[in-house]
Amino acid sequence: MSKVVVITGGGTGIGAACAQLMVAAGSKVFIVGRRAEPLHATARETGAIPLIGNAASDADWRERLLPAIRQRAGDIDTLICSAGGMGFGAAGETDNSAWQAAIDSNLTSAFASVRAVLPQLVASRGSVLFVASIASLAAGPEACGYVTTKHALLGLMRSVARDYGQQGVRANAICPGWVTTPMADEEMQPLMQAQNLSFDEAYRLVCRDVPLRRPASPLEIARVCQFLCSAQASIVSGAVLTADGGASAVDVPTLAFSL
């Protein structure tokens, strides 16, 4: 029997790459997002089923998303919480609306999704994967809302793993480093303008101290996501897997010794 997979933030980036792999593996995949255009484009390219909705909205889950999934597929086996973004700026420059937007995008979207889907995951003894970030482990510059909410995402994952493991539900998180997604492309823009760089040059610059010296592609991260959601990872729960080219293994105070 094919799996039923729901991916929030499934219209672009890592979510779209996960949809591509999981449809190819025979799963029935639903991609959830607020923006119709990228969602439908990814659906055409992958064969996933697009569902327009806000993953952070209880009402959308109750009134639109879950009824549509149940009608077409039944119980959900796998939830991938890939929706996110927002939260850039230092603490002193972050107003209340920007702070709330970061919470809604990165944390509430995952919390509302998990809470809505948990009864089905319990029934199917399924799994949930949180797409976190190396910003869940350390702080980058001027990204207070993003860093704070991505750190909190690991707490949510661990709570789900702790509370629902006895009912057969697995919960894990992946922490990518730089990935060539539309969001990362936007982050490259100030660097490109300031130093007159191309995209490739900007990515090489931000990865110069990463041991593998390059960013990941969305498909590379999706392959790791696919493993964590598969039966091959059946004993893995409560885990944080970094997929950052070795970035988090670097001892920053020793960088001055690098040739």
UniProtKB/TrEMBL annotation:
Report the InterPro entries cross-referenced here: NAD(P)-bd_dom_sf (IPR036291), Sc_DH/Rdtase_CS (IPR020904), SDR (IPR050259), SDR_fam (IPR002347)
Q: Which Gene3D superfamilies does the annotation name?
A: NAD(P)-binding Rossmann-like Domain (3.40.50.720)
Question: Pfam families of this UniProt entry?
Answer: adh_short_C2
Q: Output one GO BP term.
A: monocarboxylic acid metabolic process
Output the PROSITE patterns linked to this UniProt entry: ADH_SHORT, PROKAR_LIPOPROTEIN
Assigned protein family: Belongs to the short-chain dehydrogenases/reductases (SDR) family.
Q: What is this protein called?
A: 3-oxoacyl-ACP reductase
Q: Which organism is it from?
A: Pluralibacter gergoviae (Enterobacter gergoviae)
